């Protein structure tokens, strides 16, 4: 069963509500004021059971020019439109305005219903038909069927139902998403039941008992107690359904018009990038324009900043950044309508291409090119691969495929399939720990270059050191500290550069393959000085600060001192242990003295005994024991230091 919604459109008084009543026996004008004024003010809802057993949701919109925002809210998410034109009055202003809105909202299927045929003769009917044909020329409904009906006599109603049924198989199934989304268009309190909200399910599905969020706003979960679809109790509703949800724990003060119900915690936005198209009306949009923005039931004042044009003339399209006056919950590809700031003309609309863009202060050629690429990818949803490419380009850092899938509301399988089919190198894919990592080719090239550049710079600053940098030393630079995909990617990247022969591995560091250690005569002298100074400390731990001060006297700055200490460690002149270091000669001397005594002590020696033996400090004893434990020649048991077999082998 397809889940579809049929909506009305057309000028005030042209018989929309009467037609729905004749079709479904439901009067959508339920409010007192509607009855008194004889016009529709609020959205009306009904449903139509087709001979096939399928049931369509129906949204009846007002035609009066004052209620365009209600019409936009009602038309948002419909699949088929019944554009009504009264045979006795023909095309009127809102016939045209509604059609433009319907086209802008992307409704692709429609029937033109010529109403009130009982009020005209054959000649008038023919004239009306000719006028309609001319009016529809060049619009998406150029070839739409035109059916004459009378809600009074019932004429044509059966034909209308037949036509609706004929269209249904041509309607494409909506793309599935892994989240539920619905604008609330009505909210009411039912005694003993609580709040009920209604809306058109735009995406996904939801079932009784599940939690949803009321967005934007507090991230409070609201439980769905009951669901009705077309007046009947059901356990779940799907996109394309009209739904009435009974919510537990909803407070009226939490609700505002334009809010969305979703099981996904969407990030709210008040800055979006979009394409904007102007209707073919006498109106020109300037570089910065104030407008009123409508999408679903959401409405707010907005400023439009054109990106690739300085003015937008009738019928033209541009890319723009839109600053919304209040936060909205929007999704890429959402359509919207704009009206002028005095809210008397509908001037156009567009499609959202980025719901969380950066603030574009400068309209650079590069930015415009990127925005055009993005628009192209979003607007041509069949080009899913483009969408993947653009997202990766925007993201820059590496992502696991499942992270990317989440961001694009696609499945991992779809992403893998799209890449297998279309990737000719613009996306870099690598595998690590059985997980697939993706990033744009540009970003990959960038990281590659930066790795080499950073190691080269390191060598330049540390010419006397043979080793380079360990992968973890790039985490900060690349902002990978909390990015697991980034860390794994870096490992693969290092491996790649290593295989290509540009890098050499030394311990856990990577050095440039042809890097040659250079020690100038002055540094040579300084190294001799430093080594001697540390050795002269004797059986004690050299004081870092003191060595630094002494080095400064010798005109050795801290960076250079660190490098020299590393060099001496690599040359096995110094031994480092937990941030402290001592000279190897001191280690050897201590080992000799200690082992001389330790070999005759079956119970081992405690730290105090060792300190007295070496005539040293507590700190030194701790350090030297630590070094010997690391060498594997002693071990500690409670307070006693004992020789290992390896240690005994030294005697
Ligand atoms: N004779 C005749 N009158 C009709 C027909 N359809 C509607 N009417 C009358 O036209 C008037 C307007 O009809 P509605 O159905 O309320 O028009 P609408 O398009 O829903 O109007 P809005 O919702 O306010 O835009 C009512 O008085 C109806 O009785 C028809 O087929 N024949
Ligand atoms: Mg009506």
How does this structure look, described?
This protein is α+β, with helices and mostly antiparallel strands. It folds into five domains: 5-170, P-loop containing nucleotide triphosphate hydrolases (Rossmann fold); 181-262, Elongation Factor Tu (Ef-tu), domain 3 (Beta Barrel); 269-368, Beta Barrel (Elongation Factor Tu (Ef-tu), domain 3); 369-424; 538-547 and 558-648, Arc Repressor Mutant, subunit A. The protein is built from 20 helices and 33 strands. It has a six-stranded mixed β-sheet with strand order 2-3-1-4-5-6, sandwiched between helices. It has a six-stranded antiparallel barrel with strand order 7-9-15-12-11-16. The radius of gyration is 37 Å and the shape is elongated. The mean pLDDT is 92. It binds guanosine-5'-triphosphate and magnesium ion (MG). Guanosine-5'-triphosphate binds at residues 12-18, 38-40, 62-64, 115-116, 118-119, 150-152. Residues 12-18, 38-40, 62-64, 115-116, 118-119, 150-152 line the site of guanosine-5'-triphosphate.
Features:
Elongation Factor Tu (Ef-tu), domain 3; binds guanosine-5'-triphosphate; 6-stranded mixed beta sheet; binds magnesium ion; 651 residues; Rossmann fold; alpha+beta
Helix content: 25-40%
CATH architecture of the largest domain: 3-Layer(aba) Sandwich
| Structural category | alpha+beta
Using only C-alpha atoms, the radius of gyration works out to: 37 Å
CATH superfamily of the largest domain: P-loop containing nucleotide triphosphate hydrolases
Overall, the morphology is elongated
| Cα distance spanning the termini | 87 Å
Q: Please tell me the overall pLDDT.
A: 92
Major beta-sheet overview? 6 strands, mixed
Given the structure, what is the number of helices?
A: 20
Share in β-strands? 25-35%
The CATH top-level class label of the largest domain: Alpha Beta
